[in-house]
What does this fold into?
Amino acid sequence: MSDEKFTRQTLLDVQTLTPSLFTLRTTRDQGFRFRAGQFARLGVTKADGSVVWRAYSMVSSPHDEFLEFFSIVVPGGEFTSELSRLKPGDELLIDRQAFGFLTLDRFGDGRDLWMLATGTGIAPFLSILQDFEAWERFDRLLLVYSAREGKELAYRELIEGLEQRDYLTEYAGKLQFIPCVSREQYPGALEGRITTLIENGGLEAAAGVALSPEHSRVMICGNPQMIEDTRALLKARDMQLALSRRPGQVAVENYW
Ligand SMILES: Cc1cc2nc3c(=O)[nH]c(=O)nc-3n(C[C@H](O)[C@H](O)[C@H](O)COP(=O)(O)OP(=O)(O)OC[C@H]3O[C@@H](n4cnc5c(N)ncnc54)[C@H](O)[C@@H]3O)c2cc1C
Ligand SMILES: NC(=O)c1ccc[n+]([C@@H]2O[C@H](COP(=O)([O-])OP(=O)(O)OC[C@H]3O[C@@H](n4cnc5c(N)ncnc54)[C@H](OP(=O)(O)O)[C@@H]3O)[C@@H](O)[C@H]2O)c1
It folds into this structure.
């Protein structure tokens, strides 16, 4: 076995969602283990031979044979300009080790699991929802996914098909999917930012359940300003970060 800190994987599939969003599927090293919600560092080799690394959350579940990722294309971005050029058959470097604390280990109890995402921040929640644990442990799973425009809401089919999967049918009815679109009216979606919808009560009204320190456990992922603003709103309701030295109701992952 090579003693490099990464393995070389092969791109199996690339799907373009919009000019700035795409998904990619790769082979998976047999030794690569992760908890749903974690991320890995991906590396792409530039024309000059240097390698650029960035963190990416796994979309696929820990029991899938492949790895899947969901990516933005940042105009002029050092990493995504290269990544978005790759085609099936090309090579992607992937760290041997997975990282991150946006996992269910953060919460010892709780009745309702709220997952709040902006943009590509939906990725870790797709992994968590494709695994059993959240479905076993929580009575309600609330997936709140905010994008600027309706066409940027990815993985609709995967989300809508979760409760029909053989291993999840016994939990059917637990998941509530609440898409939010901030820059246009879009059928079936709430209108506005997650923060606005928490402040004006629209999110809890749509969910039919309150955000409370007693029952809610809240994971937040994506835009760092959204995370900061949401944390402040939750803190005002006595909900705080779960730390190893102090139990809490909130866990976050900033994407930049
Ligand atoms: C723990 C962790 C997990 C991550 N997981 C993902 C993931 O699953 N999918 C993903 O697309 N990115 C993810 N990112 C972001 C990713 O690491 C890179 O920032 C992204 O690939 C852009 O790289 P770049 O070199 O092209 O631009 P950079 O120079 O890295 O970023 C330039 C700017 O682009 C914006 N930006 C960066 N990433 C995003 C994003 N995801 N959505 C919207 N705006 C963004 C920010 O304004 C940032 O300052 C994650 C980051 C962290 C820290
Ligand atoms: N040129 C384009 O048409 C276009 C389209 C999409 C993305 N992009 C590029 O992609 C990047 C942004 O990607 P993105 O749209 O996935 O991410 P984003 O800007 O983080 O927006 C995703 C969602 O998060 C919301 N949001 C942002 N800040 C928030 C805050 N403080 N509190 C609560 N909600 C907040 C947005 O609402 P708001 O809509 O209210 O901000 C939107 O609903 C940029 O680099 C941009 O250049 C460009």
The longest helix spans residues 224-235. The chain has a mean pLDDT of 97.
